[in-house]
Amino acid sequence: MNQLATTRLWLRRNLFSDAFSSLTTLMLVAAAFWWLPGLIDWMLLQAVFKTDANACHASNHAGACWGVVAEKYRFILFGRYPHAEQWRPLLATALLLLAIVASGLRLLARGPLLATWALALPAFFVLMGGGHFGLSPVESDQWGGLPLTLLLATMGMLLAFPLAILVALGRQSGLPLLRTLCAIYVELVRGVPLISVLFLASFLFPIILPQGFAIDVLLRVQGAIVLFAAAYLSETIRGGLQAIPAGQHDAASALGLGRWQAMRWIILPQALRAVIPSMMNSAVSVFKDTSLVTVVSLYELTGSLSLALAGDAEWRSYYLEGYLFIAMIYWIGCYAMSRFSRNLELQRGPLRT
Fold first, then answer.
1. Domain 66-81+138-348 belongs in CATH node 1.10.3720.10
2. What are 217-274's pLDDT values in tens digits?
3. How would you label 243-254 residue by residue, b for 16+ Cβ within 10 Å and e otherwise?
4. Where are the domains of the chain?
């Protein structure tokens, strides 16, 4: 009986709290009853799951052709990486995901966690690039799929975070020149779309380099993502710094702490805690924005799908199923990050003023 009362209370608060909410709930339920049967029929009941292109053609798109995923999943996940060596990006991805999950779920203490990252990142590059321990070298332009997506997103946030903190502190500095330079950087980067920054790093930047001096395109694109993410993240952190009450600064001074000691031990931890949801929103954006690197000939998940289907007439017409498979991967990643953010908020507790 208590469970029934709890359920009724939850329904009343979340779905039927007022007339507008009740009408919206009923409309959504009606839309689900109208739309879901056809979707289930297309996705499951009439779908083709085996790798048989003739069976997919025979269905004439009456059902989903999941056979294209079963046929092309290795190319989608690993791109143009040599087929015989694809155990290497698989292991590299597993190591990077292990470090990410250990951080997200807080499975390790700080020391072992730092050691995990110190081992996982070099191991990732050794496995992907080769040239050591008897592994054949593989150029970075052959990296693709899920490993490239994870690399760009993970390194983008790891490197952007300390830079964003420095820029946020610079914008609050008492030095006018430093404050102006940080503001110019933020406004310049935020005033252009990411795709233009990627074009700049990929095509224009090599032109202005000295003759005979070259930087790998993957490094240039990674740097562009870091600078772009740091500009947005710095404003999030600056907002957190401004939200800290003046009394916290006064209390730190009363304890005899210097300006940087107060920032390190009192102000900055509270500011970062206050903006956890916004920082995670930036991480989700970076994770999804990695799909834009396709325009500069780096083939992450979406680019790998285009390569996999472009030259295969048998499966070329089944892009939708491939994109749904990729969308599921992105959704799992974004949902996992949102849950991590929520758990971190609950563990840390609300900001006390």
1. yes
2. 999 999 999 999 999 999 999 999 998 888 887 888 888 888 888 888 889 999 998 8
3. ebeeebbeebee
4. 66-81+138-348
